[in-house]
Design goal:
alpha+beta, five-stranded antiparallel beta sheet, 13 helices, three-stranded antiparallel beta sheet, about 400 residues
Length: about 400
């Protein structure tokens, strides 16, 4: 039926339209009329495009706004204007092409010898257009289903996000659920819900059951399976670390022999800043398999963190005097807690000296290097004032060799 309508719209009989006018003259006149109308439409389209450019350029401050991501300008007004003009220019050339295409088809339809070519040219437009219109009509019920699914998931996610924010701010407390778990848990639930929403919407999309879509899905799955192995392992390790509550942002931690403050924690990696101001990135799987110590948490709880320093003295110096001087030097050290008080342990008897260990409590793990430095200085001052020399292990070994 569509082909018959199309044929009636472009077909011209050999008898002509006007009585008494030769067919050849009539056909030439129709061709000239089509060309004249085509020329007029192209001029009108170009004039309208020029006027629209002038209109938009004069009012670009009103219609266009710069686009920012945080504080970084992605698109300025001038750039947006160029993009708009580029799109309009493409649209203009597309319309001109369509007008020329239709005009060529009409001209071919005038002459009986080329009428078949005209039918084929118009079918190239009409058949896809007919298919698109039918697809749109058939897709309308699915649109409503997709919108309903999207709204349900959107407001469920918003509700969970509100509860997560309340838990983070500690306005809502759940026994056994820590506030720092709220945002990571919300991120996991949001990802799962969005994935479920896509799965539910997918069958209602146009061409979702076509071989092209299925091939794309398989291809993306294969790429993800090859590329996401290490990343998936780090992601799982990051989730486990979060719920283990091994450390928080800003904590000073020790991972094997590396000590630093946590400055960033992502699902894939953790970044720490060392006392030398070095930023080190550690995959979460490495943290899971390494021995880690949270120095800040130990300092915050259980009366503070104990740090110790080993010193050596000869057997001639009374141990009670050494204990008294070490504890006195520790109590004078800044950022050392007075309660619980420092204490001394004797950790080794050697050939020529006794090894002592002074232990002090601190409440701020970030100040460990400064505390150690001040403690060493105070110990030297205390024993220098008392006239007692500190024994070096290296010095004793040299003395022993000399005596031999």
């Amino acid at each position: 039926m569509g082909d018959s309508i199309l044929q009636e719209s472009i077909g011209v009989t050999a008898e002509g339209v006007l009585e008494g006018v030769p067919v050849e003259v009539e056909n030439i006149g129709l061709v000239l009329l089509i060309l004249l109308v085509l020329y007029g439409l192209i001029r009108l389209l170009s004039y309208g495009y020029t006027r629209l450019k002038v209109f938009l350029d004069a009012r670009k401050q009103k219609f266009l706004k710069p686009i920012y991501i945080k504080d970084y300008p992605i698109l300025s007004i001038s750039t947006e204007e160029k993009v708009v003009f580029f799109i309009l220019n493409i649209f203009r050339y597309l319309l001109i092409f369509i007008l020329i295409y239709i005009a060529v088809g009409l001209i071919f339809g005038i002459f009986p010898a080329t009428e078949g070519i005209a039918m084929k040219l118009f079918s190239y437009i009409w058949d896809p257009l007919k298919t698109i219109i039918h697809s749109i009509i058939n897709f309308i019920p699915n649109v409503f289903i997709i919108i309903i699914i999207w709204f349900i998931f959107r407001y469920v996610i918003k509700g969970i996000g509100y509860l997560s924010n309340e838990i983070t701010l500690e306005r809502l407390k759940i026994t056994g659920f820590y506030p720092d778990w709220a945002q990571p848990t919300f991120g996991i639930i949001r990802f799962i819900l969005n994935a479920l929403m896509v799965v539910m919407i997918w069958p209602y999309l146009p061409m979702s059951d076509s071989s092209i879509f299925q091939g794309m899905t398989v291809f993306i799955g294969v790429i993800m399976s090859f590329a996401s192995g290490p990343a998936l392992g780090n992601l799982i390790a990051g989730i486990i670390i979060t719920y283990m509550r091994s450390f928080q942002m800003g904590d000073r931690i020790q991972i094997n022999d590396m000590i630093g403050n946590v400055i960033e924690r992502t699902p894939i990696v953790t970044r720490i800043r060392t006392i030398k101001n070095e930023i080190i990135t550690i995959p979460n799987t490495n943290i899971m398999t390494a021995q880690s110590t949270n120095l800040s948490e130990s300092a915050r709880e259980n009366n503070g963190l104990i740090i110790h320093l080993n010193v050596t003295f000869s057997y001639e110096t009374p141990w009670r005097t050494i204990h008294e001087l070490l504890i006195g030097a520790a109590l004078k050290t800044e950022n050392v807690l007075q309660t619980p008080p420092p204490f001394v342990l004797e950790v080794g008897f050697n050939d020529f000296y006794v090894e002592y260990e002074i232990n002090v409590y601190i409440a701020d793990a970030n100040k460990i290097p400064a505390i150690f430095s001040d403690l060493r200085s105070n110990i030297q001052d205390a024993f220098h004032t008392a006239g007692i020399s500190m024994t070096s292990q290296h010095y004793q070994k040299l003395t022993k060799a000399g005596n031999g």
